[in-house]
Amino acid sequence: MQARGYQADLSRPPNPGARTIAYLTNHPPSELSKGTKTHFAPINTTDRTDEIEESSPMPLLSAFTVAPTIETSRLILRAHKPGDLESLTAMWAEPAVLRYVRKSPYPREEVWTRMLRYAGHWLWMGFGFWIVSDKTDGRFLGEVGIHNFERDMEPEFSGTPELGYSLIGAAHGKGYATEAAKAVLSWFDSHIDLPYTNCMTSPDNIHSQRVALKCGYEYLRQSIHLGSPVAIFRRRRVVASSP
């Protein structure tokens, strides 16, 4: 299936070892979007060797175990590679990138751990993060994606996929984040059958909030994460109409 309005490289067959697609939701029917048609694939427990408890994390599997390549008018979104370590380490040391995240740069070792986490996220959940690069010259611009980090927050936040994006300072203010995020959301809507996603920003990060709003998110509530206030936004899944 091709994301509407974007070119997705789906020519490679799914990983032969990939397991059957299955989805769970912890959200009661009353929380589903009214007037929006959603589908949840049943889980064939007779074909599963592992036990699934009712409290299992929100998404289980999709046919994708590696990020597919997505092209937009100006960008290429692709899977992370070991060679991206230096570019990512440099990005996570930029003051413009860290301003609303933390005070000190991420150590190289911690950036490497993030990359491994992204790879595992795709393997376990069938969605995750992409590297963002310039379509013209291949220049590294940042990363974007959707993840489920099972955040320990009040009110409850775990079990809901979350949009995230970070670009190098030189790429700020050019619409790249919005372009990349819209491409990811289009892909996600086409492949992951869940009713909504969240987006979390600092209450002071107006630029990030503008990106979220342009992508269809609406302000949901204020919350606390790791002792700091955060603003939570929510977006309903957009289901493409049949031709």
List keywords for this structure.
Aminopeptidase, two-stranded antiparallel ribbon, disordered N terminus, alpha+beta, 11 strands, 22% helix, 243 residues, 9-stranded mixed β-sheet, globular, 5 helices
Describe this structure in words.
This is GNAT family N-acetyltransferase. Pfam families: Acetyltransf_3. Keywords: Transferase. There is one protein chain. By secondary structure, the chain is α+β, with helices and mostly antiparallel strands. It has a single domain, classed as Aminopeptidase (3-Layer(aba) Sandwich). Helix content is about 20%, strand content about 25%. The protein contains five helices and eleven strands. Strands 1-4-5-6-7-8-9-11-10 form a nine-stranded mixed beta sheet, sandwiched between helices. A hairpin with a 2-residue loop joins strand 10 and strand 11. Helix 1 (about 85-90) packs across helix 3. It starts with 6 loop residues before the first strand and ends in a 7-residue tail after the last strand. Mean pLDDT is about 80; it is low at about 1-55.
